[in-house]
Amino acid sequence: MRKVSLRIVTRPIQSQGIITKDNVSVDISAVAYYQIVDAAKSVLAIENVAAAIDQIAQTTLRGVVGRHTLDETLSETEVINANIREILDQTTTEWGVLVTLVQLKDIQLPDTMKRAMARQAEAEREKRAKIIAAEGEAMAAASLGQASDTMMAHPLALQLRNLQTLVEIGVDKNSTVVFPAPLMSTIGELGTFLTRESAAAAEHPPVPPVPATDGREAAANGQPVAASN
Protein backbone atom coordinates (compact mmCIF):
# COMPACT_ATOMS: atom_id res chain seq x y z
CA MET A 1 0.00 0.00 0.00
CA ARG A 2 1.23 3.53 -0.83
CA LYS A 3 -0.27 6.68 0.56
CA VAL A 4 -0.70 9.52 -1.99
CA SER A 5 -1.40 13.13 -0.98
CA LEU A 6 -4.00 14.90 -3.09
CA ARG A 7 -3.12 18.36 -1.77
CA ILE A 8 -1.54 21.07 -3.91
CA VAL A 9 2.26 20.84 -3.83
CA THR A 10 4.64 23.79 -4.26
CA ARG A 11 7.69 22.93 -6.35
CA PRO A 12 10.43 25.60 -6.70
CA ILE A 13 12.31 25.55 -9.99
CA GLN A 14 16.00 26.18 -9.54
CA SER A 15 17.64 29.18 -11.20
CA GLN A 16 18.50 28.39 -14.80
CA GLY A 17 21.14 30.09 -16.96
CA ILE A 18 19.19 30.88 -20.12
CA ILE A 19 20.17 32.65 -23.34
CA THR A 20 17.28 34.66 -24.73
CA LYS A 21 16.37 35.03 -28.39
CA ASP A 22 18.48 38.22 -28.67
CA ASN A 23 21.55 36.44 -27.16
CA VAL A 24 21.38 37.86 -23.64
CA SER A 25 22.36 35.56 -20.77
CA VAL A 26 19.95 35.67 -17.81
CA ASP A 27 19.37 33.58 -14.69
CA ILE A 28 15.69 32.83 -14.08
CA SER A 29 14.04 30.92 -11.25
CA ALA A 30 10.38 30.02 -10.97
CA VAL A 31 7.85 28.14 -8.87
CA ALA A 32 5.24 25.60 -9.95
CA TYR A 33 2.08 24.43 -8.17
CA TYR A 34 0.70 20.98 -9.02
CA GLN A 35 -1.85 18.55 -7.64
CA ILE A 36 -2.26 14.79 -8.06
CA VAL A 37 -5.73 14.13 -9.43
CA ASP A 38 -5.29 10.40 -10.21
CA ALA A 39 -3.47 8.53 -7.44
CA ALA A 40 -3.18 5.27 -9.39
CA LYS A 41 -1.50 6.90 -12.40
CA SER A 42 0.89 8.87 -10.19
CA VAL A 43 2.10 5.57 -8.72
CA LEU A 44 1.92 3.22 -11.72
CA ALA A 45 2.78 5.51 -14.66
CA ILE A 46 5.95 7.05 -13.23
CA GLU A 47 8.43 6.11 -10.55
CA ASN A 48 8.92 9.50 -8.81
CA VAL A 49 6.38 12.12 -9.81
CA ALA A 50 7.96 14.96 -7.80
CA ALA A 51 11.42 14.51 -9.36
CA ALA A 52 9.90 14.17 -12.82
CA ILE A 53 7.94 17.39 -12.50
CA ASP A 54 11.04 19.19 -11.23
CA GLN A 55 13.11 18.10 -14.25
CA ILE A 56 10.42 18.74 -16.86
CA ALA A 57 9.75 22.18 -15.35
CA GLN A 58 13.42 23.17 -15.65
CA THR A 59 13.72 22.09 -19.27
CA THR A 60 10.39 23.71 -20.17
CA LEU A 61 11.41 26.97 -18.51
CA ARG A 62 14.66 27.03 -20.49
CA GLY A 63 12.91 26.26 -23.76
CA VAL A 64 10.09 28.77 -23.41
CA VAL A 65 12.24 31.69 -22.27
CA GLY A 66 14.78 30.97 -25.02
CA ARG A 67 12.10 31.70 -27.62
CA HIS A 68 11.58 35.25 -26.30
CA THR A 69 13.74 38.35 -26.33
CA LEU A 70 14.89 40.02 -23.13
CA ASP A 71 12.31 42.79 -23.40
CA GLU A 72 9.54 40.24 -23.91
CA THR A 73 10.78 38.21 -20.95
CA LEU A 74 10.65 41.25 -18.69
CA SER A 75 7.34 42.66 -19.93
CA GLU A 76 5.34 39.56 -20.90
CA THR A 77 5.81 37.32 -17.87
CA GLU A 78 2.12 36.38 -17.83
CA VAL A 79 2.36 35.01 -21.36
CA ILE A 80 5.50 33.04 -20.49
CA ASN A 81 3.86 31.63 -17.34
CA ALA A 82 0.85 30.48 -19.37
CA ASN A 83 3.05 28.85 -22.02
CA ILE A 84 5.07 26.93 -19.42
CA ARG A 85 1.91 25.76 -17.64
CA GLU A 86 0.34 24.60 -20.91
CA ILE A 87 3.40 22.55 -21.87
CA LEU A 88 3.65 20.98 -18.41
CA ASP A 89 -0.03 20.06 -18.43
CA GLN A 90 0.33 18.22 -21.73
CA THR A 91 3.09 16.07 -20.24
CA THR A 92 1.88 15.55 -16.68
CA THR A 93 -1.69 14.59 -17.60
CA GLU A 94 -0.48 11.04 -18.34
CA TRP A 95 0.94 10.91 -14.82
CA GLY A 96 -2.35 11.86 -13.15
CA VAL A 97 -1.00 15.29 -12.21
CA LEU A 98 -2.58 18.71 -12.86
CA VAL A 99 -0.30 21.76 -12.92
CA THR A 100 -2.39 24.59 -11.48
CA LEU A 101 0.03 27.52 -11.67
CA VAL A 102 3.54 28.48 -12.81
CA GLN A 103 5.17 31.82 -11.93
CA LEU A 104 8.56 33.30 -12.81
CA LYS A 105 10.04 34.20 -9.44
CA ASP A 106 13.33 36.01 -10.12
CA ILE A 107 15.19 37.29 -13.18
CA GLN A 108 18.86 38.13 -12.73
CA LEU A 109 20.57 40.28 -15.40
CA PRO A 110 24.32 40.82 -15.95
CA ASP A 111 25.72 44.06 -14.56
CA THR A 112 26.66 45.32 -18.03
CA MET A 113 23.11 44.77 -19.21
CA LYS A 114 21.74 46.62 -16.17
CA ARG A 115 23.93 49.64 -16.95
CA ALA A 116 22.94 49.55 -20.62
CA MET A 117 19.25 49.42 -19.70
CA ALA A 118 19.71 52.31 -17.27
CA ARG A 119 21.31 54.42 -20.02
CA GLN A 120 18.53 53.48 -22.41
CA ALA A 121 15.88 54.48 -19.88
CA GLU A 122 17.65 57.78 -19.19
CA ALA A 123 17.89 58.54 -22.91
CA GLU A 124 14.20 57.73 -23.33
CA ARG A 125 13.26 60.12 -20.53
CA GLU A 126 15.46 62.87 -22.00
CA LYS A 127 13.78 62.37 -25.37
CA ARG A 128 10.35 62.72 -23.80
CA ALA A 129 11.44 65.83 -21.90
CA LYS A 130 12.75 67.47 -25.08
CA ILE A 131 9.57 66.62 -26.97
CA ILE A 132 7.41 68.09 -24.20
CA ALA A 133 9.58 71.23 -24.08
CA ALA A 134 9.34 71.63 -27.87
CA GLU A 135 5.57 71.24 -27.76
CA GLY A 136 5.41 73.88 -25.02
CA GLU A 137 7.51 76.29 -27.11
CA ALA A 138 5.22 75.75 -30.09
CA MET A 139 2.12 76.44 -27.99
CA ALA A 140 3.76 79.53 -26.45
CA ALA A 141 4.72 80.85 -29.87
CA ALA A 142 1.14 80.42 -31.10
CA SER A 143 -0.19 82.23 -28.03
CA LEU A 144 2.31 85.08 -28.48
CA GLY A 145 1.22 85.44 -32.10
CA GLN A 146 -2.40 85.74 -31.03
CA ALA A 147 -1.42 88.29 -28.36
CA SER A 148 0.52 90.38 -30.89
CA ASP A 149 -2.46 90.39 -33.25
CA THR A 150 -4.68 91.60 -30.42
CA MET A 151 -2.24 94.39 -29.48
CA MET A 152 -2.01 95.52 -33.11
CA ALA A 153 -5.80 95.73 -33.28
CA HIS A 154 -5.98 97.53 -29.92
CA PRO A 155 -2.91 99.79 -29.36
CA LEU A 156 -4.06 100.69 -25.85
CA ALA A 157 -3.58 97.06 -24.82
CA LEU A 158 0.19 97.41 -25.27
CA GLN A 159 0.25 100.44 -22.96
CA LEU A 160 -1.78 98.56 -20.36
CA ARG A 161 0.65 95.68 -20.63
CA ASN A 162 3.56 98.06 -20.07
CA LEU A 163 1.92 99.39 -16.92
CA GLN A 164 1.30 95.86 -15.67
CA THR A 165 4.97 95.02 -16.27
CA LEU A 166 6.01 98.06 -14.22
CA VAL A 167 3.79 96.89 -11.37
CA GLU A 168 5.36 93.42 -11.47
CA ILE A 169 8.89 94.85 -11.50
CA GLY A 170 8.16 97.16 -8.57
CA VAL A 171 7.18 94.31 -6.21
CA ASP A 172 9.21 93.75 -3.03
CA LYS A 173 10.90 97.18 -3.08
CA ASN A 174 13.64 96.24 -5.54
CA SER A 175 16.15 98.75 -6.85
CA THR A 176 15.40 98.31 -10.54
CA VAL A 177 14.80 101.58 -12.40
CA VAL A 178 12.65 101.38 -15.51
CA PHE A 179 12.24 104.17 -18.07
CA PRO A 180 9.14 103.60 -20.18
CA ALA A 181 9.38 104.19 -23.92
CA PRO A 182 7.35 107.49 -23.91
CA LEU A 183 9.64 108.96 -21.22
CA MET A 184 12.73 108.00 -23.19
CA SER A 185 11.35 109.71 -26.30
CA THR A 186 10.63 112.84 -24.23
CA ILE A 187 14.21 112.87 -22.93
CA GLY A 188 15.47 112.53 -26.48
CA GLU A 189 13.36 115.43 -27.67
CA LEU A 190 14.58 117.56 -24.74
CA GLY A 191 18.19 116.81 -25.62
CA THR A 192 17.57 117.77 -29.25
CA PHE A 193 16.01 121.07 -28.10
CA LEU A 194 18.99 121.93 -25.89
CA THR A 195 21.42 121.14 -28.69
CA ARG A 196 19.51 123.36 -31.10
CA GLU A 197 19.44 126.26 -28.62
CA SER A 198 23.17 125.94 -27.95
CA ALA A 199 23.91 126.11 -31.69
CA ALA A 200 21.72 129.20 -32.07
CA ALA A 201 23.45 130.92 -29.18
CA ALA A 202 26.84 130.21 -30.71
CA GLU A 203 25.82 131.80 -34.04
CA HIS A 204 24.45 135.04 -32.44
CA PRO A 205 26.50 135.97 -29.39
CA PRO A 206 24.99 138.70 -27.12
CA VAL A 207 26.39 142.36 -27.18
CA PRO A 208 28.33 143.13 -23.95
CA PRO A 209 26.99 146.20 -21.96
CA VAL A 210 28.97 149.57 -21.80
CA PRO A 211 30.58 150.05 -18.36
CA ALA A 212 29.60 153.17 -16.37
CA THR A 213 32.18 156.15 -16.26
CA ASP A 214 32.40 159.65 -14.59
CA GLY A 215 31.49 162.97 -16.35
CA ARG A 216 34.96 163.98 -17.50
CA GLU A 217 35.64 160.66 -19.23
CA ALA A 218 32.23 160.89 -20.85
CA ALA A 219 32.81 164.44 -22.02
CA ALA A 220 36.19 163.54 -23.37
CA ASN A 221 34.64 160.71 -25.30
CA GLY A 222 31.93 163.03 -26.63
CA GLN A 223 29.11 161.33 -24.71
CA PRO A 224 26.31 163.39 -23.08
CA VAL A 225 26.52 163.90 -19.37
CA ALA A 226 23.46 164.06 -17.19
CA ALA A 227 23.33 167.03 -14.84
CA SER A 228 22.58 166.45 -11.24
CA ASN A 229 21.65 168.88 -8.54
From TrEMBL:
UniProt xrefs under SMART domains: PHB
One protein family per Pfam: Band_7
Region annotation Disordered: where it falls in the sequence: 198-229
Domain named Band: residues: 1-121
Family statement: Belongs to the band 7/mec-2 family.
PANTHER family: AT06885P-RELATED, BAND 7 PROTEIN-RELATED
Protein name from the UniProt record: Slipin family protein
